[in-house]
C-alpha cells in the first residue's frame, strides 16, 4: 500500500537545498504559509501553461458550462526542454500561471521549491476515488495533494506478429521467456534484435526496477534512503547486462528515432516494451499496419505485473490568486468523460487517470494493431498491476541523469549495469547532501 512521503523528509534540509532546487532561487513560501484563499465573488480568468497541443479546445468546454470562469491556455516547451525553466523563473519573480503541467516524477521537486499549492485545502482529496490509485499516489505526498493526475503510461509489450509467427513464438509472459524468445529469433533471423536498450535512458531502467519491486528512494524520518542495489534492482541490471552482452538488443540507437523507425518497419526489431502512449508512435512505423499486437509486460517471479513510464499532472502554482477555481477545473478536466475524450482526441494524452473511464476512442478494436482491442484487453489490466510503494524524490532529474551517466559506461569502458548502480547510488547520496538534503545509502 502506498505511503505518502513524510513532510519531514522535505523539511529536514539545509538552506542550500531550499535555494537551489531546479537550478533556480526559491522564493515561494506562500504555498506553505498562507491560509486558504476563498472563492472569488465575480468572474475569474485562470491561466494554464502546458505543452499539450490544442489544450484550449478542452478548456473551452469548461468555459461554456462555467460562464464565471475563463481558462486561457498558453503553450510552453515540454518539461526539461525549457518548460520547467520558464515556470521556475516566472514563479521566482512572483508571477507564473494559475495551473502548470508538471510530470509526476517532478512533483516532489516543485514541492520542495515551494512552487505548488496543497490543493487538499480546496477539497481535492474528497475526489480521490475518481482517480486511478497508482496515478493518485504520485500527487498525494508530504501530507498534502499537489496536483491532479493528467495521464499515465502503464507499460506493456508491443510486438510484431509476423516476426513471432516466423519462428513459432508466442508473446513472452516472463522475462526469462523474453530472453529465450530473443535467442530463438536471433538464431532463425540473423540481424533481428528483440528490442533496443538505450544506455542513456535512466528513466527506463527506473521503470524496469519499479516493476521488479525496487524502491530507489525511501523516506525514513528526516532522511532519504537511496537504494539502487537491492536484490530486485540487481536482478534487473544483471538481466540487461546479459541481454546486451549476448547481442539480444540493439544499443546503437534509441526508441522512436529515425533508425528505430526504419528497423521496426523492416522487421529487424521484434518488440518494444514501453508505456501505453507508445502506441501512437508505433502507428508511425512504415508499413506497420496489421503487423503489431500488444501483450502484457513480461514479469519476474516476484514484483509486479507492470510499471509506469511517463505521466503528467496539472498542478496549481503557488502564486495563483484563484486556487479554488483552479482546483475545481483540473478535477473536472481529468475526471469528466467529455473532457477526457477531448484530451485524448485533441491533445494526444496518455492513459486516462480516471478510475473507471479509459476514453471512448480507446474502447474498441484497432485496425493498426491487427483488430485487437488492446486497451481494454491489456493496458487496463496493466494499470492495475503497479508498484504503489515507488516514490520519486526531490532532485529527481539529477538522480536520473546520474543513473544514465553510469549506464553509458557499459559501452564506453565496459562497466556493468550492476556495478554502475552501486556507483550511481553513492553519487546520488552525495548530490542530495550537497543540496542540504539528508540522505544515506541503504544497507544490504
From TrEMBL:
The protein's UniProt keywords, in alphabetical order, are: Cell membrane, Lipoprotein, Membrane, Palmitate, Signal
Q: Where are the transmembrane segments?
A: none
Record-linked InterPro entries: Bact_solute-bd_prot1 (IPR050490), SBP (IPR006059), TAT_signal (IPR006311)
> Which Pfam families does UniProt cross-reference here?
SBP_bac_1
Note whether Transport occurs among the keywords: no
CDD domains the record matches: PBP2_TMBP_like
How is this protein named in the record?
Answer: Bacterial extracellular solute-binding protein
What species was this sequence derived from? Actinomyces glycerinitolerans
At the highest ranks, the source species' classification is: Bacteria, Bacillati, Actinomycetota, Actinomycetes, Actinomycetales
Amino acid at each position: 500500500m502506498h505511503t505518502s512521503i513524510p513532510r519531514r523528509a522535505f523539511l529536514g534540509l539545509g538552506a542550500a537545498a531550499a535555494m537551489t532546487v531546479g537550478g533556480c532561487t526559491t522564493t515561494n513560501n506562500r504555498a506553505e504559509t498562507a491560509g486558504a484563499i476563498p472563492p472569488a465573488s465575480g468572474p475569474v480568468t485562470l491561466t494554464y501553461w502546458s505543452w499539450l497541443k490544442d489544450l484550449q479546445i478542452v478548456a473551452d468546454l469548461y468555459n461554456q458550462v462555467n460562464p464565471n470562469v475563463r481558462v486561457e491556455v498558453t503553450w510552453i516547451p515540454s518539461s526539461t526542454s525549457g518548460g520547467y525553466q520558464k515556470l521556475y523563473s516566472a514563479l521566482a519573480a512572483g508571477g507564473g500561471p494559475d495551473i502548470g503541467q508538471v510530470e509526476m516524477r517532478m512533483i516532489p521537486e516543485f514541492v520542495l521549491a515551494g512552487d505548488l499549492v496543497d490543493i487538499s485545502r480546496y477539497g481535492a482529496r474528497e475526489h480521490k476515488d475518481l482517480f486511478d490509485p497508482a496515478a493518485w499516489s504520485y500527487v498525494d505526498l508530504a501530507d498534502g495533494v499537489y496536483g491532479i493526475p493528467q495521464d499515465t503510461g502503464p507499460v506493456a509489450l508491443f510486438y510484431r506478429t509476423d516476426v513471432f509467427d516466423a519462428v513459432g513464438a508466442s508473446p513472452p509472459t516472463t522475462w526469462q521467456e523474453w530472453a529465450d524468445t530473443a535467442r530463438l529469433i536471433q538464431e532463425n533471423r540473423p540481424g533481428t534484435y528483440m528490442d533496443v536498450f538505450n544506455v542513456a535512458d535512466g528513466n527506463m531502467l527506473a521503470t524496469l526496477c519499479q516493476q521488479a519491486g525496487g524502491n530507489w528512494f525511501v523516506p525514513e524520518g528526516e532522511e532519504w534512503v537511496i537504494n539502487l542495489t537491492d536484490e530486485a534492482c540487481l536482478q534487473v541490471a544483471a538481466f540487461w547486462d546479459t541481454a546486451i552482452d549476448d547481442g539480444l538488443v540493439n544499443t546503437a540507437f534509441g526508441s522512436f528515432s529515425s533508425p528505430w523507425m526504419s528497423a521496426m518497419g523492416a522487421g529487424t526489431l521484434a518488440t518494444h516494451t514501453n508505456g501505453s502512449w507508445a502506441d501512437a508512435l508505433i502507428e508511425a512505423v512504415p508499413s506497420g499496419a496489421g503487423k503489431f499486437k500488444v501483450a502484457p509486460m513480461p514479469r519476474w517471479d516476484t514484483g509486479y505485473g507492470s510499471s509506469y513510464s511517463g505521466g503528467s499532472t496539472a498542478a496549481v502554482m503557488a502564486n495563483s490568486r484563484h486556487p479554488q477555481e483552479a482546483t475545481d477545473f483540473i478535477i473536472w478536466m481529468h475526471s469528466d468523460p467529455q473532457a477526457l475524450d477531448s484530451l485524448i482526441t485533441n491533445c494526444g494524452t496518455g492513459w486516462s487517470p480516471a478510475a473507471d473511464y479509459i476514453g471512448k476512442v480507446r474502447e474498441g478494436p484497432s485496425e493498426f494493431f491487427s483488430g485487437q482491442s488492446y486497451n481494454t484487453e491489456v493496458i487496463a489490466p496493466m494499470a492495475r498491476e503497479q508498484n504503489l510503494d515507488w516514490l520519486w524524490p526531490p532532485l529527481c532529474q539529477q538522480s536520473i541523469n546520474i543513473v544514465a551517466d553510469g549506464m553509458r559506461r557499459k559501452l564506453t569502458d565496459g562497466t556493468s549495469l550492476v556495478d554502475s548502480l552501486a556507483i550511481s547510488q553513492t553519487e546520488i547520496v552525495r548530490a542530495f547532501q550537497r543540496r542540504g538534503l539528508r540522505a544515506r545509502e541503504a544497507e544490504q
